[in-house]
């Protein structure tokens, strides 16, 4: 072999090595995060490993460099979209019709006005990213693989294979839904300006919180509707809720999970957060799902609930639950009290506070100014 031929052969080998290296690197960086529990002896596990559903296995989703070049969403939507798109997947042999399961149209949910930005932000997810983010200018994103690991997820184990949530210097396994949400909605350094740390709000050490991480502090919540209770005593009692009880599709027949909704805040029901709207079962449908409307408007838990919500004075329609309550939790006060300072301000003495007396909500005082009405240690 001549010198020139040896050089050509060497360069060809280098090009092949670089091509293989680049392909492997791209797959590692852009592939969904998978921990050691995701694969068993190198075999795909979970729902997508069922060959009676996906006869082609890996090749059903991985077609050349499609995911690396255009993101994983399009591959997901081959099956998790409308019926006609799924029929194309059946025609190519990637999906097999099976009477034992049904697939929902996730794409339709993501097209609703309030949704996670799966359709608008693509290719940002990094396989080994540690969440919550520590970099202030890191791009906010929510892609399919941020919440689902397609190589391991299973209907009975939806979080299987997901990279855990960072707590200090440690990565903690995800076993609860709220832990998944905290990956983006807690201590992230790149949170949007008007968003808050949900982990801080739900902490069970707070004076009050909705019972997501643990049962609530108050054992006296007279407005709760069955089967909701403050403290679980019977098997059918519900004393804790999840993020998806409030956040998710507005259509009960739609797939579970916070993909999209027609209501602001990606809520399952309407929640009127603006001031001076008439009270109705629709205006506060989200609250009335668990809290009895008649109890609230009969002032069973607070002597002036109806006055505040319905108005009936100074020509006002009333104010929103959101004016006085934070639906996640309060690090300052009992009874989820956290004032909306767009509506509530300091009184003439410079005070803006709530003082609870005892554990029941029927005694306390407010010092503030609301709708021009001075409250100076106004007791009830």
Element-level helix/strand string: HHHHHEHEEHHEHEHHHEEEEE
Oligomer: single chain
The total count of helices amounts to 12
The count of strands amounts to 10
Shape: elongated
SS strand fraction: 5-15%
Structural class: alpha+beta
Rg over CA atoms, rounded to whole Å, is: 26 Å
Overall pLDDT: 87
Helix content: 10-25%
Alpha-carbon distance between the two ends: 99 Å
Give a quick account of the main beta sheet: strands, pairing sense, barrel closure.
4 strands, antiparallel
Which consecutive residue ranges, at least 5 long each, have pLDDT under 50? Answer: 10-14, 16-41
Q: Would you kindly provide a written description of the structure presented here, covering whatever features stand out?
A:
The protein has 380 residues and is an alpha+beta fold. Among the domains are: 1-29; 31-195, no CATH class. The protein has twelve helices and ten strands. The strands form four sheets. Strands 7, 8, 9 and 10 form a four-stranded antiparallel beta sheet that branches. A two-stranded antiparallel ribbon has the order 1-5. The chain has a two-stranded antiparallel sheet with strand order 2-3. Mean pLDDT is 87; it is low at 10-14 and 16-41.
Write the layout of secondary structure elements.
Blueprint: H1 3-30, H2 66-70, H3 73-77, H4 83-91, H5 106-110, E1 114-115, H6 144-147, E2 165-167, E3 170-172, H7 177-185, H8 198-202, E4 208-209, H9 243-246, E5 260-261, H10 285-288, H11 293-297, H12 305-310, E6 329-330, E7 344-345, E8 353-356, E9 364-370, E10 373-379
Antiparallel strand pairs: 1-5, 2-3, 4-6, 7-9, 8-9, 9-10
């Amino acid at each position: 072999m001549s010198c020139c031929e040896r050089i050509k052969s060497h360069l060809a080998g280098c090009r092949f090595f670089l091509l293989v290296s680049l392909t492997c690197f791209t797959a590692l960086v852009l592939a969904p995060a998978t921990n050691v529990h995701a694969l068993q002896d190198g075999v795909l596990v979970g729902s997508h490993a069922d060959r009676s559903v996906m006869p082609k296995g890996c090749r059903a989703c991985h077609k050349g460099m499609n995911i690396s070049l255009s993101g994983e969403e399009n591959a997901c939507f081959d099956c998790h979209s409308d019926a006609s798109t799924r029929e194309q997947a059946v025609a190519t042999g990637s999906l097999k019709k099976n009477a034992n399961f049904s697939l929902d149209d996730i794409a339709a949910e993501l097209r609703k006005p309030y949704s996670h930005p799966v359709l608008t932000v693509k290719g940002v997810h990094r396989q080994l990213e540690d969440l919550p983010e520590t970099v202030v200018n890191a791009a906010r994103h929510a892609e399919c693989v941020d919440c689902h690991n397609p190589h391991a997820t299973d209907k009975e184990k939806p979080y299987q294979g997901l990279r855990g949530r960072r707590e200090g210097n440690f990565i903690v396994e995800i076993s609860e839904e709220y832990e998944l949400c905290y990956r983006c909605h807690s201590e992230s350094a790149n949170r949007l300006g008007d968003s808050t740390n949900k982990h801080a709000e739900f902490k069970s050490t707070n004076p009050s919180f909705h019972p997501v991480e643990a049962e609530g502090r108050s054992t006296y919540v007279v407005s709760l509707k069955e089967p909701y209770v403050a403290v679980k005593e019977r098997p059918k009692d519900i004393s804790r809720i999840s993020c998806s009880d409030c956040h998710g599709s507005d259509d009960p027949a739609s797939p579970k999970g916070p993909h999209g909704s027609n209501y602001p805040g990606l809520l399952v029901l309407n929640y009127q957060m603006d001031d001076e709207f008439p009270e109705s079962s629709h205006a506060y449908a989200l609250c009335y799902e668990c809290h009895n409307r008649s109890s609230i408007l009969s002032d069973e838990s607070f002597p002036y609930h109806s006055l505040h919500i319905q108005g009936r004075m100074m020509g006002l329609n009333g104010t929103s639950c959101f004016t006085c309550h934070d639906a996640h939790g309060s690090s300052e006060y009992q009874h989820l009290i956290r004032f909306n300072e767009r509506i509530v301000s300091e009184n003439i003495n410079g005070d803006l506070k709530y003082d609870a007396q005892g554990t029941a909500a029927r005694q306390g005082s407010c010092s503030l100014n609301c709708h021009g009405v001075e409250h100076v240690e106004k007791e009830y």
